[in-house]
Amino acid sequence: MKYLEKASLSKIFIILFHIVGFVGFSLPHLQDFFISLVPFHLLLMAGILIANQKEYNKNFWLGISFIAVAGYLVEVVGVATGKIFGFYVYGETLGFKLANVPLLIGVNWVILVFAVGAVLKKYFKHMRTLKSAVAAVILVFIDFLIEPVAVKFDYWSWQDSLIPLQNFIGWFFVSFIFMRIYYELEFRKSNPVALTLVISQILFFIGLNLTMV
Fold it and tell me: Could you tell me the keywords of this UniProt record (predicted)?
């Protein structure tokens, strides 16, 4: 019962924070304040997701650590070379940067991989490669929604102000590798708030895209 209560409260928090965030980003006089809260929002969502994991073992923590570090390092290489996602630079919205990449970008990868991974866990049983490919497509779709918002609010910016096709191709292959590793690690992947978090993020970015039309 306590576990269900925690999950229910967590879902309410996720939905409310995304609604409040949408309102804040939509109103010009509140935008600067809400932009300053983006790093805290990412940490909060990651904390809620991890807190609702049904059980913890060394493989779970190994997965969290690997995705966070690898996600950050992929972005470091991507920013430095332009060979993974194209040529882009990070702005100030995501907070403290090391090697020109916000440390929190690794947290963002954890949120996306572990949330989408948990949502798809019961589908395509024993077909981890197919499941990883489907998850990667979903992550590319989420990135497609994020990109215009990210550029407008100084998450990052692209060379010549154009989002290249290479970005989405790179996202697919990086996401596929991360998802494949996620499904290969043996731990219980059930998470009762994962679907709420994924849907909230998708609706949040769809809504912001519509306000920018």
Answer: Membrane, Transmembrane, Transmembrane helix
Beta bridge partners of 98: 101
d(CA 143, CA 137): 10
pLDDT over threshold 90, residue 4? no
- Output the CA torsion 46→154→19→37 (10° steps): 60
- Give the global pTM: 0.93
Q: Look up residue 177 and give its two tokens.
A: 């590798």
Q: Please report the beta strands in the chain, taking only residues with DSSP state E, as ranges in sequence order.
A: 88-90, 97-98, 101-102, 156-158
DSSP state of 100: T
Distance in angstroms (rounded) separating the CA atoms of residues 40 and 36: 8
**Dihedral over Cα of 168, 174, 180, 186: its sign:** negative
Three-class DSSP category at 102: strand
